[in-house]
Amino acid sequence: MRNKYFRKRGAKKAQITIFIIIGVIVLFSAGVYIYLRQTGAGPIKFLQPKTPPVEQYILACMEKTAEDGLRILGAQGGFITFPDSIDANPARYVSLVPGVPADVAPKVPYWYWQGQTELPSLGYMEQQLEGYVDIRLGDCIQNFTQFTEEYIITPLGAWHTDVVFTEKETVVSLDWKIDIQQKGQETTEKDQFIVNLDAQVKRMYELGRELLEAENEKQFYEQMTIDLMASHPESDIPFDGLTLHCGRQVWALSQIKDKLLYSLEPAIMGIRFRNTDHPPWLGTEDEYAKVREAIKSVKESETVVPLVLPKKIPPDSYDYFQYYFNFTNKDYSEFKVTSNFRKEWGMNLYATPNEYGILKSGVQDLKSRIMSFLCLNTFHFVYDVYYPVMISINDPEAFHGGGYVFRYAFPVQIYHNKGDRSIQPPIEFNPTEFDLDYCDAYGEEEHTVRAVDVITNAELSRANLTFRCMTQACVLGTTRTNNVHLQWTGKFPSGCGNPVIEVQREDYLPAYEQHTGQEPFEIKMWPTQEVKFTFLKHLSAAPESWKFLEGDEHIVMSIEHKDPEVSGFYTFTPEETFNSKQTMELLRADATYDVNIMLFKQIGPDEDAMVGGWIGKWEVKYDEIADASKVEFHIIQRVPLPRGDMDFVETYMMMTNQSLFPQVQHVIRRGDSPVQEPAPVPEAPTPATIPTQ
Asked: Out of 109, 520, 522, 650, which could bridge 448 as a Cys pair, Cβ 3.0 to 4.6 Å?
């Protein structure tokens, strides 16, 4: 078995919170290869080879941003941002990852709530995705900084996104006038860009809606739950009975709930849905039909007749009749549909009668001349049950085989041993209607907005302002001097009570603030410093000296600052020590980062072992980072190399306890002078002795 501290060679792709784009332009006809997809998202879709690089870049950004939005939309039942009626009420959704705070894990909303179907319309979902792309596309475009050396790119206005969910795909159209000029060539004007994503959102939505309507009508889950409870012996879950037992029988409601929870989770997961892609049954449809007819004839007979079953009965007949949901006549065979229940989501279970959580039978003492007495226990209990079910509709072929999942939830409701799903007219969340010239309809009042450095309190010029209201985005302009202040003054688009003002400026984190009505309105911005970085290692046996990485070593690093959020994930090889173009963005402020650096060394043809690194809090002062150009991250390597589990535990302790090697300190440098190789490191003794506190 491979040790958990070993890694497969080749699994070194970096993932960062800001999408990495590597542009390689070979002549003018080769195009741009853009790697925007996170690991597991599927291969990149190559566009027409003759598409100019800048256009291909925009289309790839559109595709990546739209896919990110679609994945959020699918994970959250058709919502990217929730209405307050859902977001503020934890009873109206379940967490996709139980135990994780709701502000971190996706929320899967109920499409049925308090007797009413409440779900987003297709138009509402399209508008949600349009707003997401409008807001997030700029994070990918990044002002075309990758093309500044060869192209002059001039946007002629703000962009606007249109989304249409068709039967087989998602079409995203971007209206954006832009001039593109390769230096020394003629200018090309473009005004529309279109990408087609292989995500069948419309059909998945229709499948989910049909399934919910069938559940509301047939109460499949309620009946399945009642049958499951009744299948337990009366000693576990009592319903109706009469037993010969002297003395009162008692059951604890908490134990009944535990029994039901234990059996319910696998039962819900085992449900299969007709006309979808599911594991095959062991018998043929004809064989199950014969079993069904035999049982039906006995039930409908007015006299007592024996049950005559066919000779061949499929061994999974019980599951077929109990856990096969026939919810539609349409063909959805391209989709895999599953249902889930997690006990962490909770269940409400109440029984009548009960006394303080204890169910008791009734006792009758019958005496006769023949028998001294006969003890009869009778009981009759009714149950109210409420628990959530999550439906997952999976298209494994979507996004070039990377797959796409659409989820929603609904509650299973049982009242007094019967399903209780009151059906009222459905409520749909529909898109808000805006005029086509929304950004051109201004209000009467003038407003003043200033961008302010959060560290120095200095007002900032050249800060680009965007007015955002729901899914609408309107470019306001740029802060500039009025000979007294650096600010923007003008009118907002009308019809929005609480707009969000977005500010972007070079060397600052983007900032978003809801306009409070205060004038002038100030938005604080966090300054950043872009720095190069390298790694130098110290041997545990001789920590006073350092050396460069060796050819069979590489680094995996993550760095994170929580408020404001700054994070990155990087890999680093020895070849990058002197010519790396990688940079990271740090706050130009006093800050403490969570840093995790792992040093891996090749120990076999296809295996790497973690042999050192550095894990801990890294404190950076404003005076150190201001105008810095490079960071040298110093790490410790265990000598001799770890081989067994105890060695790896010791290596981890060495990486996390900075007091063991106080000489190992990260260094921030100004200027761009190359690092000089130090004096040779003495040969390490064997075995190594790691200092103790």
From this structure: 520
Q: Which of 240, 260, 228, 225 is nearest to 419 (CA)?
A: 225
Q: Mention every residue, 6+ apart, whose C-beta is less than 8 A from residue 258.
A: none
In the numeric block, the tokens 């062991």 are attached to 282
Which residues in 588-689 belong to E strands, given as ranges? 591-604, 607-620, 630-637, 667-669
Paired residues of 249 in beta bridges? none
SS3 537: strand
CA angle 304, 307, 310 (to 5 degrees): 155
Distance CA(601)–CA(609), nearest Å, equals: 5
Cα(105)–Cα(59) distance, integer angstroms:
29
Can you name the residues that pair with 427 across neighbouring β-strands?
118
CA atoms of 494 and 310, how far apart (whole Å) = 74
Whole-number Å distance between alpha carbons of 229 and 267: 11
Of 269, 266, 273, 268, the C-alpha closest to 336 is 273
- What is the block-wise mean pLDDT of the chain (693 residues), using blocks of 10 residues? 39 36 34 38 40 88 96 95 89 85 82 89 96 94 90 91 96 94 88 96 97 94 94 90 66 91 93 95 93 84 76 91 94 96 91 83 46 56 94 96 96 91 62 57 90 95 87 84 93 81 93 88 95 94 90 91 87 86 93 93 84 94 93 94 85 90 92 56 45 38
DSSP state of 459: B
Q: Please report which helix (H) or strand (E) contains residue 587, including its range.
A: strand 583-587
DSSP conformation letters of 196-227 = EE---HHHHHHHHHHHHHHHHHH-HHHHHHHH
The whole-angstrom separation of Cα 4 and Cα 412 is 41
Both tokens assigned to 380: 């009759």
Contact yes or no for 223/271 (Cβ under 8 A): no
pTM: 0.56
Nearest to 669, CA basis, from 470, 531, 543: 531
Contact 612, 599 (CB under 8 A): yes
Structure tokens at 345: 């989501």
Q: Report, in this order, helix, strand and coil percent for the chain, each rounded to 5.
A: 25, 35, 40
Q: Which residues contact 330 (CB under 8 A, 6 or more apart)?
A: 207, 210, 275
Give start and end residues of each alpha helix (H) in 219-309. Answer: 220-230, 253-269, 285-300
Using DSSP, state whether 399 is helix, strand or coil: helix
Cβ atoms < 10 Å from Cβ of 240: 12
Instruction: Tell me the angle at which helices 220-230 and 253-269 cross, rounded to the nearest 10 degrees.
Output: 130
Match 């987003």 to its residue by tokens: 120
Query: Which DSSP state fits 527?
Result: B
Question: What does the pLDDT read at residue 13?
Answer: 37
Provide the token pair at 79. Answer: 């919502």
Beta bridge partners of 197: 170
Model confidence pLDDT, tens digit, residues 556-590? 998 999 888 888 888 899 888 888 889 999 999 99
User: Which tokens belong to 58?
Assistant: 């925009």
What is the distance between the alpha carbons of residues 605 and 592, in angstroms, rounded to a whole number? Answer: 39
Residue 586 tokens read as 């740090």
Which stretch of DSSP H or E encloses residue 568?
A: strand 566-572
Where do the DSSP E strands lie in 324-471?
Answer: 324-325, 336-340, 348-352, 358-360, 362-366, 374-380, 382-395, 404-415, 418-419, 424-429, 442-453, 464-469
